[in-house]
Amino acid sequence: MLEDLKTDQELIKRGVLKAAPEAVFIIASNQEEFEDKINWVGPDIILADYNVPGYNGLEALLLVREKMPHVPFVFVTGSLNDEEKVAETILNGASGYILKGNLSELPDKIEHVLVREEKRFKEREAQVQKQRRKKLLLQKLNALIENSSEFSNKKDAVDIMQEVLQITGVQ
Q1: How many CB atoms lie within 10 A of CB 46?
Q2: What b/e string do you get for 6-26 counting C-beta neighbours within 10 Å, with b at 16 or more?
């Protein structure tokens, strides 16, 4: 959590604990603490105020997207009531936002974001498995072609297979 006000930290904690009773909190109240803690912790979700003295939430978001692109990042703030800022944060990779005046909605927002991220993770994992399977099949096919003496156009088949392997990134 990136939040400089102790009272807001406690209110946010209460909301999170309703959605995730076993949650463990790591709190940063300024840029230095946030950047330090991001380097040594692997969070499940990041909750950040948009305006922390001397630091901008958008900078924090961009840092997180660079270092841990798949970690959900939700702004919990009192200052994102400008539609342009909201659009900018979402376009830069925020998973969502909630205004501090609506903290009663925080448990639902967290659950929604975590479920959505889990779905995305499973989709990415399925895509990776599909790519691995495709590479394996292409490698097997290449070996069959190269080792077969029955192809009359073996050289052409090997050349085409090598090109397919290069295009797909398989060596």
Answers
A1: 24
A2: eebbebbbebbeebeeeeeee
Q: Which residues pair with 98 in a beta bridge?
A: 76
> Exposed/middle/buried for 89, CB within 10 Å: 0-12, 13-18, 19+?
buried
Give the model confidence (pLDDT) of 126-163 as tens digits. Answer: 888 888 888 887 788 777 777 777 767 777 777 777 77
- Dihedral sign for Cα atoms in the order 81, 85, 91, 94: negative
Cα-Cα-Cα-Cα torsion 52, 56, 60, 65, nearest 10 degrees, comes to 150
Rounded to the nearest 5 percent, the helix, strand and coil shares of the chain are 65, 10, 25
Q: Which residue do the tokens 């292409």 mark?
A: 138
pTM for the structure as a whole: 0.70
CA 170, 129, 96, 33 dihedral sign is: negative
Encoded amino acid at 58, one letter: L
Both tokens assigned to 153 = 């156009």
